[in-house]
């Protein structure tokens, strides 16, 4: 059996992390971006840079490229692009396209067997273990110090990144709410199971105690009757 799972991340942190990754020379050249059986044309998906890579690009340059696939990456990668004509932006108006993509991403996320959140490592581990009935040999670690967290940005830049990733921002709010609902459900289920086991154990213990008392009473009666016979 195959199960679809994913891990989502705070959109601003994820965006800054990708920028740092690209800045160090990373590219997505190996990604074919195949949709409906074909890769996008250069007109449908222009490159943000010339040359071998985009190493050394500033955050401003990264944000200024209108074709940057870092924008709303999580929504795009979770949605069914065939619903909007893949990478052909002329198929439908932008507002309609955005709504279709976001709705598709939410639906696909909801139907996944499991998804976690980078910002909630322990809860993510707990949900994974309960969902698939398996345990990791060591606890997940919450790293608050990352390459993204080391980037200091002002309020204006923060707002710009949020605007560029407005679909991811909405998806993340939805995902966090759904994630915490699933976590609470699993915790309640675990507590109910633990309570059921305690009740079952108490029931077994009471039955054993009653059996021992009955044995004790029978033994006392037998001893008494035996003494009566001897006294005669």
TrEMBL record:
UniProt function note: 6-O-sulfation enzyme which catalyzes the transfer of sulfate from 3'-phosphoadenosine 5'-phosphosulfate (PAPS) to position 6 of the N-sulfoglucosamine residue (GlcNS) of heparan sulfate.
InterPro entries per the UniProt record, alphabetical: Heparan_SO4-6-sulfoTrfase (IPR010635), P-loop_NTPase (IPR027417), Sulfotransferase (IPR005331)
Superkingdom of source: Eukaryota
Annotated region described as Disordered, given as residue ranges: 210-232
Annotated family: Belongs to the sulfotransferase 6 family.
Signal peptide segment: none
Any one Gene Ontology cellular component term annotated for this protein: membrane
GO molecular function, one term: heparan sulfate 6-sulfotransferase activity
Swiss-Prot/TrEMBL keywords: Glycoprotein, Membrane, Signal-anchor, Transferase, Transmembrane, Transmembrane helix
Pfam families in alphabetical order: Sulfotransfer_2
Annotated EC: 2.8.2.-
Organism: Bambusicola thoracicus (Chinese bamboo-partridge)
Major localization class: membrane
PANTHER family (alphabetical): HEPARAN SULFATE 6-O-SULFOTRANSFERASE 3, HEPARAN-SULFATE 6-O-SULFOTRANSFERASE 2
Reactions that this protein is recorded to catalyse: alpha-D-glucosaminyl-[heparan sulfate](n) + 3'-phosphoadenylyl sulfate = 6-sulfo-alpha-D-glucosaminyl-[heparan sulfate](n) + adenosine 3',5'-bisphosphate + H(+)
Protein's name in the database: Heparan-sulfate 6-O-sulfotransferase
Subcellular location: Membrane
Membrane topology of the entry: Single-pass type II membrane protein
